[in-house]
Structure formats: C-alpha cells, structure tokens
Amino acid sequence: MVEVVMVDDHVMMRQCLASVVNSFEGFKVIHEANNGKEFIEWLNPDKLPDLVLMDINMPYMNGHETAIWLSTHYPKLKFITITMQNDERSIIRMLRSGTRGYVLKDSEILDFKQALEAVMNKGIYINTVLYKHIIDNLHGHQANLETEQSVLSNLNEREIEFLRWLCTDKSYKEIAAEMYLSPRTIDGYRDALFEKLKVASRIGLVLFAIRNEIVKI
Amino acid sequence: MVEVVMVDDHVMMRQCLASVVNSFEGFKVIHEANNGKEFIEWLNPDKLPDLVLMDINMPYMNGHETAIWLSTHYPKLKFITITMQNDERSIIRMLRSGTRGYVLKDSEILDFKQALEAVMNKGIYINTVLYKHIIDNLHGHQANLETEQSVLSNLNEREIEFLRWLCTDKSYKEIAAEMYLSPRTIDGYRDALFEKLKVASRIGLVLFAIRNEIVKI
DNA sequence: AAAAAACTGGGTGTTTTAACGGTATTTTTT
DNA sequence: AAAAAATACCGTTAAAACACCCAGTTTTTT
User: Which of A24, A103, A212, B194 lies 20 to 30 Å from B155 when distance is taken between CA atoms?
Assistant: First the structure.
C-alpha cells in the first residue's frame, strides 16, 4: 500500500483529491497538511510516507521551498506537484527542485492516476500541455536570428558534431582524433563552415554554435 | 484497442516486446518494421496507428530521423523511444524531436507498461535514470557557475574588457589595438586568465565569458 | 620609506590555425 | 550510365596563438 500525504492549503480541493487517491487501488492517504511548514514538522524520519502530493501556492512555506527542503533532507522521498500554475517558470523550477510529477488541477482523474502510478514505478509524469514548455526550454530561446536558422539547417550531422567539438579547448588535431578523421579532413570541415557561416576564425564558429544552442552552456 | 507499431531492427528484441505489448490489456501490435524507412513507407495516412514504439539505432533511417519525419508529417502520431542509449544527447535529441516517452531496453516490463499507458493518456514518460539528465540540462551547469563565481570576482575591469574582446573574431593583435595596449601586454593578460580560469585556449576563455554572461549572446 | 603586488612591455621560440592549392572515392541525382 | 554532389583526404605557407623567459613603472601594502 502506497502511503500518501496531501499538502495543500485549499481544504476542499485537498479533501476531494484525497478521496480520489483513496479510491485508487494500492494508494492510501495517511496525512493531510495545510502547507509545507506543517508538513515538514509532521514528518517523522523513521516513518516516511511513500509519496507526497503538494500544491505550489501555499502560505508560510510554499511548494517550491518545500521541494528544495525535501530534496536536501530526504532526497528519496517522492513528491508530485499538483497545481493550477502552468507557467513555464513554475514547471521548470519544480522540476529542478526534484518533483517527480507535475499535474494540473484541472486534469482528469485518469491523468492523475497515471501520474501516481508512473511516479511510484521509477518514472516521472508530466502533462502533455506542460511538456511543450520543457521542450522549449531544452531548445533554449527559439527566437534565433532567422537568417542563422536557415544556415543552421544547411549543416549536416557531422558538421554539427564538429561544432560541438569546437566548443571545447581541444585543438583541431585532437578533435580529428575524437571524430576518427584525419586532421586534413577537419581542415576541410572548418573551411566549409567558415564559408557557410561567414566567419573567419574558430571563435566565430564557437559563437555561432552557442547562439544556436548547438552546445549547451 | 490501441494499435501499436514496433520499429526496431533487432528482430528478436522486437518480437519479444511485441508479445509483451500484446499481453497488455487494450494494446495490440498491428505491424512491425525493421527501420524507419520501412515504417514510413508502410504508413497509410488514412489508417494511422495509435502508437509507435521505436529504437534509435537502426539502419537506413534511424530513430532520430524518423522522429523528425513523423513530427513534421504526422505531429499527432504518438511515439515512444525504446532504446539502449541512455546518454544525454540521445535523450535530449529525441525529446526535441517529439518523442512522448523514453524507455531503456533494460527496464522492467512494468515500467514499459506504465510508459505506454501514460503516453496514451496525455502524458509523457521518462525513466527516472534519464530524468536526471534532463534536469541537468534544464539547470545548465549551475554547480559550476557557483564555483566560477569566485573566480569571476578575482578578475579586474581590464580583464573583463579583454574577455569581451575575446568573444569577437578579432586576433590578439587587433584586440591590443582596440585596448590601446601592446600585443605583449595582451599576451600577459591572456596568460593570467589561462592561469586564473584554468583553461589553455582562447576557446576556454570565450566559454567562460559566455557562461558568466560577461558577453551577451 | 621599503617591500610587495600589479600593470605594462619585451624577446624567442614551438605549436596551432588559417588560406591556398589540390585529389580519390562514394553516394545521390538526373 | 553519366553528372553532380558529398565525403574524406593531402601539401605548403604565412599568420596567429601559445609558452617561456625577462624588466621597468606604477600602485598598494606594510
């Protein structure tokens, strides 16, 4: 039986969700708290719950603060964020703070159940609507210079890989070895990129790669 | 009934997984393909499957290429990546290409089932082990930034200015002229920064400058 | 006021990078 | 099957980058 704790200052909402959780086979709500502070004061290191469901917006100690505290003190304790906030920053922040799932309060019960089951089984769960935000964030800022975008699409896999290598402090000779190519070939790659990207030095290539998020900084 | 297509060049693996999928209630494998090319040639716009499970490493047309093609031509067609590759680049790349799930081949059957169910129900599913990679990616390398912060505070105005010049495609000689210094002095600045920042090439300096937002990209 | 630190400039090398000239092989297109 | 494109490769030369050595001047510290 998965022992669940609910942390949310909206009592009605919390109790509704709790009854839903109790209706799921294998899940049982063993405690409810009004906010993060109440929750961590209640926590007993010898008898941790299996799963915590919590809101972000709460008085005294909000979901974000609680998440950081939990990640620091009980990194193995799984928690899912259940909230109405679907803005990118909230999502990213909670993910970074270690939440295993992020479910919107206006999701369907089935989504909710999926999230619980996925999280209890080594996974993470994020609503599809939110997923887009995350992917955008992985991309970085898509508002790249359009002219560069078209140049970018003219680069092949190998050139992209080369650009990534350029953004290290390896010499061309070392990069050649890494890519299993002759240094001469690397010379050719460089020259081709100089031409394509209209630059004249490795620095120019590196800056392009970073601007276009070919490498993560 | 969720109609599933399996795309993987490892026949044994594919057939094993297919039989497992068939054993799941509500799922049925309706087609198997050896690679992306075979798969998209088989695809019938009038009768799309509900879910595609595919490997990354495949001949002729690999998972990444197939993912991009699918995202372009049938953005609503859901697919899950099932692979042995758990390196960050593969994961990020597939996520960016629109995969709804990422499951390692050495996962347990239950994980696998969770992934299928989560994806069919508006979610995405990613193994916990992989999740770390994604979060690290969202972070950027924040851990490093903190240690670099102290290094940064040891740099003087002139060095900062020099770092900014480094992030252009000017040569040291040209930078010297811009800063009204002798090229020799610039040499000294560079060497001092190499020492302070523990790097050994201009590229390293440029990356530092960008990471620490000394220059705006 | 003396010592230390920081800033600036210099000499002399080696290594790396960049620009120029190409060729041979495979893959794709026509 | 021929043409075109893409891929991998090579040599030479000049410039730039990097590594080491150094010294004089100014600023800061003691």
Answer: A212
